[in-house]
Design brief:
Elements: H1 3-10, H2 20-32, E1 37-42, E2 46-47, E3 50-51, E4 55-64, E5 70-73, E6 88-93, H3 94-97, E7 101-102, E8 124-125, H4 128-131, E9 138-148, E10 151-159, E11 166-172, H5 179-197, E12 204-210, H6 214-230, E13 231-237, E14 247-249, H7 257-269, E15 274-275, H8 285-288, E16 297-301, H9 323-342, E17 344-348, H10 375-382, H11 390-397, H12 401-413, E18 417-421
Parallel strand pairs: 7-8, 11-12, 11-13, 13-16, 14-15
Antiparallel strand pairs: 1-10, 2-3, 4-5, 4-9, 6-9, 10-12, 14-16, 17-18
Helix pairs in contact: 1-5, 5-9, 7-9, 11-12
């Protein structure tokens, strides 16, 4: 199933940081990733400075006007209810109702996405064009939901490689019907996991599907020591589905292997990208890069969260995210993984310049232009001091690292270079 088709299947599900919407989503992903393991963390579990909250579920909700007309119906759009709303069945005046209504005056035709995870509240989200025309009278607000002890659910997939050094791929599964700022990450993560599972891979891959913030914190509280010891690079998958822009969010450190790899690939495949400051962070890089955690994690996005007008509204839909946008993100993330898989510390084992003509790698007649075909090889050899990796050398000589991998292996077969592990 193509990524956009999978997104369409997941679209109607009402997800939150806990609840059956998360489980349903993960079980659908498990159809594609049979080895995906689901974990339940009970309500009340302490995770660093956080505590797993009560589990939320919702079956229906509606707001009825003075004449009995339905103004808002959860069945029409799951954004119509403030996520994590407590149950309510009340009749209120318009003045009493207004504090529980949410709309966007600058986008009068859209439904905003609003949450209240950690403080009990309730509310409805509606287009401002509807809200401004509400007239005085009695309104009935009904939200059939529950907040009860349960658990937080996350998915984990470990694909073992020849070494226990790991690449982390993390995404989140806690937003309701939003395409770029939610579903683009899990569907890309699923496609990448399927591809990585088909590789003859050097590294172990840790794929995480977690509720944003609380889920990442919860996972780190259980696995931090192991992840610190093993993780060489990581990427948060978010907002990877539109076609408007390319964006890069570096790690807090800014110069990790993940950062260098992302910049190297973006420079060649998306040179028009915007690099943001870590001060403009907003997804789970906040957790993976926090002081004391300090994992080498960054994020390559299309339009960055909080920068596009559809963000956290009903306009972030299946039309905003395209099959081509997802495919381009898939291709770029493949190149980053290929770069990491092939990266090494090449070192020349010949003093002076090797005689390439004896190995059939250079024409025996010296004339203008005759050496251009071997220039990449010679430049690679010139910088193969055993201290610089292929990513750094690629930057220096202006060649993509994933292309240099094959050149380096060819030279190693000819006993010109030895290739040492970079990590």
């Amino acid at each position: 199933m193509a990524m956009h088709e999978l997104m369409t299947r997941l679209w109607p599900i009402c997800r939150s940081i806990t609840g059956d919407g998360v489980r349903e989503t993960l079980n659908i992903l498990k159809e594609r990733l049979p080895e995906l393991t689901l974990h339940e963390v009970p309500t009340g579990t302490k995770c660093f400075d956080w505590t797993v909250p009560n589990e939320w579920s919702i079956s229906s909700a509606c707001l009825t006007g003075p004449d009995g007309e339905k103004l808002v119906d959860f069945d029409d759009n799951n954004l119509h209810v403030v996520n994590y709303s407590s149950p309510v069945d009340r009749t209120l005046s318009l003045d009493e109702l207004q504090p529980h209504l949410h709309s966007l005056p600058d986008q009068p035709g859209t439904v905003p996405y609003v949450t209240s995870y950690y403080k009990e509240n309730w509310g409805f989200c509606l287009p401002h064009s509807v809200r401004k025309n509400l007239r005085p009278g009695d309104y009935r607000a009904v939200i059939n939901s529950s907040l009860t002890p349960g658990s937080l659910t996350y998915g984990e997939l470990i694909l073992e490689g020849r070494t226990d050094k790991e690449i982390l791929i993390s995404t989140y599964i806690c937003h309701p019907s939003m395409a770029n700022n939610e579903l683009s990450g899990p569907v890309l993560g699923t496609a990448l996991a399927e591809w990585v599972n088909s590789l003859d891979r050097n590294f172990t891959y840790r794929f995480l599907f977690v509720p944003e913030t609380i889920g990442a914190i919860c996972y780190l509280s259980r696995h931090l020591d192991e992840m610190r010891a093993k993780t060489i690079a990581g990427f948060v998958l978010t907002c990877v589905g539109d076609e408007r822009a390319w964006s890069f969010m570096p790690s807090r450190n800014g110069e990790t292997l993940a950062d260098r790899t992302a910049r190297h690939v973006l420079k060649r495949l998306a040179p028009e990208h915007t690099e943001y400051s870590f001060l403009q962070r907003g997804s789970d890089e906040r957790q993976y890069c926090s002081p004391g955690v300090d994992l080498p994690v960054c994020s390559v996005m299309r339009s960055k969260y909080m920068t596009f007008p559809e963000y956290h509204t009903s306009l972030d839909n299946l039309e905003f995210v395209t099959a081509q946008g997802l495919a381009d993100s898939y291709f770029l993330h493949q190149r980053m993984i290929e770069t990491l898989e092939g990266n090494c510390l090449p070192k020349t084992i010949i003093l002076g310049e090797p005689k390439m003509s004896d190995r059939g790698l250079r024409p025996t007649l010296g004339k203008r232009g005759s050496a251009l075909s071997t220039m990449t090889m010679m430049n690679l050899i010139a910088y193969s001091d055993g201290l610089s990796d292929l990513v750094s050398i690629g930057e220096t000589i202006g060649v993509s690292a994933w292309d240099l991998v094959q050149t380096a292996r060819q030279l190693a077969d000819l006993e010109i270079l030895e290739l040492k592990p970079a990590y």
